[in-house]
Design brief:
Blueprint (H helix, E strand, L loop, with lengths): L9 E12 L2 H7 L1 H22 L3 E6 L2 E6 L2 H21 L7 E12 L5 E2 L1 H12 L5 E4 H7 L8 E6 L8 E6 L6 H7 L10 E4 L3 E2 L7 H16 L5 E2 L2 H4 L9 H8 L3 E10 L2 E10 L4 E11 L3 H16 L5 H6 L8 H15 L3 H17 L4 H16 L6 H18 L4 H13 L3 H14 L4 H13 L3 H14 L6 H14 L3 H14 L7 H10 L3 H14 L5 H7 L4 H14 L4
Parallel strand pairs: 4-6, 9-11, 9-12, 10-12
Antiparallel strand pairs: 1-3, 1-4, 2-3, 4-5, 6-8, 7-8, 12-13, 13-14
């Protein structure tokens, strides 16, 4: 994660503790004032004194969360354990009103800026560990474990290496569950979702057994295409690829996958490539019972890859619901690229597009432009490049906003002209029309995308933002919630949280807007653009100190930014933009 460039920043090794309140959103919806009072009491009477007793420094609070720095990992673990023990003692006397924390700890090299805030990938790792922890529990990284084993009287369980959201490398995880919170909060931390009333499936990451890490994108591309094809079978409920990929590299049983994703079936497989030869193995599992329903393998040359994907899709559909017509399976096929090299480049670009970071955007743009030089009529490459341009406009990453906005619309329209029944290209066109404020046309295009693929979490996300832009807060919230159900572990979930926060701002519910935006910021702390909406929410809620701090964070990432830069990038109604400008003015951002 890029840190501040200020010359007064410094680096040091530190143990970072991240904590949040389990089930906070649900508690706020039931008793907003009571929950806030209990949270303040928890901070004042439990968290802050325990931090001080162990030589820690409270870096910042973010809504229901805390970020704390320790010079010693041993003291960090002791502090975490004492906090959880104190909460368990409180719960024994008053279980109905106890707030339960989830805590993650990582040892890492951090950057500290002149205001005392901390940055670095290791900070993100601590946040991810906190999200894995059960209510009342603690998760630590392997680095922390190496430093504390034999020095603390706690029995941590080795959970092995796990792939966590937005972190490229697997993390070794050790967990101490301690006195766990009530079952409903444990479910909130690791949700058990109800099965839909139609066949439901997750296509899990295929394993690359080629012995060549460079073939990883080939395995990922196969999963992407099979997921897209199954999603367009209207009678299916299909988990989005981004959430299914949360299980990559993790040893998880199928019953757990069924509970966490709310699906009956799972498709898993492997890919082996040697030169021009490729073998794909796939098997379909009833995840509720862990039983195998169908298995097959396919041998051939790389040029047969798309045929193999179609055969797997047809076999899965036939095994789950044989009554589906062959015509519907045929309709699910998207236009294939003319060049497999172009396909390879697009698959490499795909995760970079979803990262929502400036550097990743530029790298993805380079790969997609190269793909289009090889195949100028590849709709997916055109759509993704259009979305990269749209990102640069929306997130203030370009000084050529109008040029990028119009080029994004042109490329999105070109993609749809080549593949008019592809839900993804339609959703991108809907997004492009949204940022050019052609809301009626955007609504029609997004409605068609969702009719073709009701399982598209991204199309529901874009529809949520469109309703935000049009001032329809309640519909926006319902569409973001639909996107989150289709992709509960999506790295883009924080963008839905931001959309819900924006909807509450539109409706004048500033405290609720703050809670959702702080949640998004905790999940994706390097997304400084969040402060464009968070600072005015703070200001209009009367929290001037936090508003000013939020603007300072914004200016670190966007030196010289002005209110006019923010309002020109956003597509809300004039009334909402006026309130955003007023809030930014109160927070101290220059005109």
């Amino acid at each position: 994660m890029p840190g501040p460039s200020d010359q007064k920043s410094q680096r040091r090794l530190a143990a970072i503790l991240a904590a949040d309140v389990a089930g906070y959103s649900g508690l706020m919806s039931l008793d907003e004032e009571g929950t806030l009072l209990r949270l303040r009491h928890l901070r004042r009477e439990v968290v802050v004194p325990t931090i001080q007793a162990h030589g820690g420094r409270l870096v910042k609070t973010t809504g229901d969360g805390f970020l704390i720095e320790f010079s010693s990992p041993v003291e960090a673990v002791r502090c975490a354990a004492e906090i959880q023990e104190a909460l368990a003692a409180i719960a024994a006397e008053d279980p109905a009103t106890t707030l339960w924390l989830r805590i993650g700890i990582n040892l890492c090299d951090i950057i500290i800026d002149e205001d005392g805030d901390v940055y670095g990938d290791g900070v993100n790792v601590a946040s991810r560990l906190e999200q894995i922890a059960v209510p009342g529990g603690i998760c630590i990284s392997g680095k922390v474990w190496e430093e504390v084993r034999g020095k603390v009287p706690y029995a941590f369980e080795d959970r092995g290496e796990q792939q966590v959201r937005n972190i490229a490398r697997p993390i070794r995880i050790y967990c101490l569950n301690g006195a766990q919170g009530p079952p409903e909060l444990a479910m909130d931390a690791s949700p058990s979702l109800a099965l839909p009333d139609r066949p439901s499936i997750a296509v899990l990451p295929f394993v690359n057994i080629s012995g060549d890490p460079e073939q990883e994108h080939l395995a990922d591309g196969i999963v992407e295409d099979i997921t897209s094809a199954l999603s367009r079978v209207r009678s299916f409920f299909v988990i989005a690829r981004n959430s299914a990929f949360a299980y990559k590299g993790r040893a998880v049983n199928f019953q757990q996958i069924s509970r966490e994703l709310g699906v009956r079936y799972a498709l898993e497989g492997s890919v082996r490539r040697a030169g021009n030869r490729v073998r794909i193995s796939a098997q379909l599992i009833d995840a509720t019972e862990g039983t195998h329903l169908w298995a097959e393998h396919y041998d051939g040359v790389v040029e047969d890859l798309f045929d193999f994907q179609d055969q797997i899709t047809a076999s899965v559909v036939g095994a789950i619901q044989p009554s589906i017509r062959a015509a519907e399976i045929e309709r699910a096929k998207r236009k294939r690229p003319e060049s497999l090299d172009a396909y390879d480049l697009v698959m490499r670009a795909l995760p970079l597009v979803w990262a929502l970071e400036r550097e990743s955007n530029l790298e993805a743009t380079h790969l997609l432009e190269e793909a289009l030089r090889l195949d100028p009529t590849y709709p997916l490459a055109l759509s993704l490049l259009a979305w990269c341009r749209g990102q640069r406009v929306v997130y203030n990453w370009t000084e050529r906003s109008e040029e990028e906005r119009q080029e994004a619309l042109r490329q999105a329209q070109a993609a749809v002209s080549l593949s008019s029944d592809d839900p993804f290209t339609l959703a991108v066109l809907g997004a492009a029309l949204s940022i050019t404020r052609e809301f009626g046309s955007a609504a029609a295009v997004l409605a068609r995308a969702l009719a073709l693929d009701p399982n598209s979490a991204w199309a529901w996300n874009r529809s949520g933002w469109l309703h935000d832009y049009r001032g329809d807060a309640e519909t926006a919230i319902s569409h973001f919630e639909r996107a989150l159900r289709l992709s509960p572990f999506d790295p883009m979930a924080f963008n839905c949280d931001m959309g819900i926060g924006a909807a509450h701002f539109i409706a004048g519910r500033y405290e609720e807007s703050i809670a959702w935006q702080e949640k998004a910021l905790m999940a994706h702390p390097n997304s400084a653009w969040i402060h464009r909406n968070l600072a005015p929410a703070y200001a209009l809620a009367g929290q001037r100190g936090k508003a000013a701090e939020s603007v300072r964070e914004l200016l670190k990432a966007y030196p010289g930014m002005r209110i006019s830069d923010v309002t020109s990038a956003l597509a809300f109604t004039d009334e909402v933009l006026g309130r955003i400008a007023e809030g930014l003015r109160l927070a101290g951002l220059p005109e």
